[in-house]
TrEMBL record, chains A, B:
This is Transcriptional regulator, TetR family. The lineage of its organism: Bacteria, Bacillati, Actinomycetota, Actinomycetes, Micromonosporales. PANTHER family: HTH-TYPE TRANSCRIPTIONAL REGULATOR RUTR, TETR-FAMILY TRANSCRIPTIONAL REGULATOR. It holds the Pfam family TetR_C_11. Residues 1-22 are annotated as: Disordered. GO terms for molecular function: DNA-binding transcription factor activity; transcription cis-regulatory region binding. The keyword Membrane does not apply. The keyword Acyltransferase does not apply. InterPro entries: Homeodomain-like_sf, HTH-type_TetR-like_transc_reg, HTH_TetR, Tet_transcr_reg_TetR-rel_C_sf, TetR_C. Keywords: DNA-binding, Transcription, Transcription regulation. Residues 44-63 bind DNA. Signal peptide: none annotated.
Length: 202, 202
């Protein structure tokens, strides 16, 4: 979605193009409405337009409808992708685990916990949302595949199960404050080292 | 809370005592209101009484207020504790991991994802909610401690981190349908075996 450009070709003032300013206002209005407790169902192009101070036509010039706009807004919450250095598999995994559930926008804390279950109830929304998290998941998959290729990780590794093991603890601790005994700051390193070594006595 | 009894001592009809029937209706009304989207903040003794078809005094005879009633209702969603057999550490862990995020009540799917973040915003609610999950967490802690004592698990095991590793994957898969590539039915065994063995090449 983010490579779509406005079809408006009106003359533009210097500095930031007008369409980009409107896009920003529309994304912000969408996130504000969600953070104030709007469900996806209740969210409407009318309400977003009113909140952003733009006409509905301005939204439809840029987005095909509510769903694509919603997904662009959710993608915005996540910020830019982390960049593994590519040297040590352990260090790269700690970096990626540390980025899990870390949203760049404080509204995420209000929006995400209730929204994800609502997203999941619609197969279309679920697929769109999976597209948002797919690049992050792919980064971790590549680090694990590299570890196997380099002989650092077991050749019979189940990559998807391992990703769930690396992701789950951080996500429940960041989103749900699952266990007050855990330290969110040391957790990425503890998770990676425990998954690497295993807990079985040798 | 569950060992509190009604202070009403009116004569009772045979069969189920009247107070128990009223208690059931009150708990059910609380869960219904939450499943329909009521926030904890919006939930009121008035609304619960009206929905349950009882007077407010009936609720106050049994619960000190909204918070204790809420916690009894949430405890109800979880059902009874799983019972590890106590022979194999691996089998006990698979049983406990399989019970994570499994609610006995279909309303839980609507209630829990949005409620837990709201619970966490109030230190009092957070503490009350931790009391609900503490017995489940303690069961897993005991199995891990037994594994260390029996020499099956590493003596330097970090029990809290290991519990997060065992719990996180199931919770994100059950509550968020995190990754369509994972199989919820085989996941408990896969999680336990991967955490036991570790992913490092040997």
């Amino acid at each position: 979605m983010s490579d779509m450009t406005s079809t408006a070709d009106a003359p533009r003032s210097p500095g930031r193009p007008r369409s980009t300013r409107a896009d920003e206002a529309i994304i912000e209005a969408t996130l504000d409405l969600l953070a104030e407790g709007s469900t996806i169902e209740a969210l409407s192009i009318e309400a977003i337009a009113a909140r952003a101070g733009v006409g509905k036509a301005t939204i439809y010039r840029r987005w095909s409808g509510k769903d694509t706009l919603l997904m662009d807004a959710l993608r915005r919450l996540k910020g830019i992708l982390p960049q593994p250095a590519g040297h040590s598999v352990r260090d790269d995994l700690i970096l990626l685990v540390g980025a899990i559930g870390r949203n760049v926008d404080p509204r995420a804390e209000k929006i995400m916990p209730c929204l994800v279950p609502e997203v999941n109830r619609s197969p279309d929304h679920y697929r769109l949302y999976q597209n948002i998290i797919a690049p992050r998941r792919q980064l971790m998959r590549e680090v694990l595949a590299r570890g196997v290729a380099e002989g650092v990780l077991r050749p019979d590794l189940d990559v998807e199960v391992t990703m769930a093991l690396l992701t789950g603890p951080m996500l429940i601790q960041r989103v749900l404050q699952w266990n007050p005994e855990l330290n969110e700051h040391t957790l990425p390193e503890q998770v990676v080292d425990t998954v690497l070594a295993g807990i079985q006595a040798r």
